[in-house]
Amino acid sequence: MQIHFYKYQGTGNDFVILDNRNGAYSGLTSEQIEHLCDRRFGIGADGLMMLENQDGYDFRMKYYNADGREGSMCGNGGRCLTAFARHMGITGETLRFIATDGEHDAKFRDNGWVELKMKDVDQVENGGSFFYLNTGSPHYVQFVTDIQEVDVYEDGRAVRYNDRFAAVGTNVNFVQEIDKGIFVRTYERGVEDETYSCGTGVTAAALTAAPGEAGEYAIPVETLGGHLEVRFLRTGEQQYEDIWLCGPATPVFEGNIKI
User: Fold this and answer.
1) Coiled-coil stretches, from where to where (predicted)?
2) What pLDDT, in 10s, does the model give residues 179-202?
3) For residues 94 and 116, what is the distance between their CA atoms, to the nearest angstrom?
């Protein structure tokens, strides 16, 4: 099979993207997707996305983790797929698409940033030394004092494969409060390693970093791959609404590959 692919990245979180609106790539196997994402023997990416048609929406987002399995929501992926959709001629001030966790709105800033509306959050587990919540994907959040000293691979893997999470898995985020906002490093399930950035993880970290009182917040976030911003409205102790993940989403290259 000959595949025409596109490569996009959002703060270093990178994705292979396929235009599957005609169904040409629907038969790809998990092994083939894993091969395309392989950084030594394939194109290399944290995940693969397909742009598909969906009645009532501008498009449908289908996301696969780097291990070839269909994944849950990916925030940076959603922003990159929105930028790709615009490149492919899907236009509008606001684009609406459907993903595995429901519908999302996305819009563009003048500086090229893509703003993605995330699902509301109404349940946050406070475990004392950690928080656990779902922002489209499950996230374990732990605040630390020196994020550069954290062994994200070993410590993240220990949580992801502990007795509670081993069966389904969780993403693991280590967060340090800095002068302006927070710094986040993430171990991602499906990639099974640290990534340069994780959109749903950044969102989870920002929500748990906000002060306890209700109000509107805009949290600047630094990752290994660059700068993001999370805006939201806190309406109660565990209630967060109107959540927007904002940041760059840029093309890297396109090409053809035969598998």
Assistant:
1) none
2) 999 999 999 999 999 999 999 999
3) 10
pLDDT above 90 (res 88): yes
Please, are residues 248 and 112 in contact by the beta-carbon 8 Å criterion?
yes
Is the same domain home to 74 and 140?
no
CATH (domain of 178): 3.10.310.10
53 in a labelled binding site: no
Residue 74 annotated as catalytic: yes
Among this protein's residues, is 80 annotated catalytic? Answer: no
Q: Are residues 186 and 207 in the same domain?
A: yes
What is the C-alpha separation between 170 and 149, in angstroms, rounded? 22
CB 231 within 8 A of CB 218: yes
pLDDT at res. 238: 86
Q: Which residue range forms the structural domain that includes residue 8? A: 2-116+249-258
Catalytic residue among 37, 80, 198, 246: 198
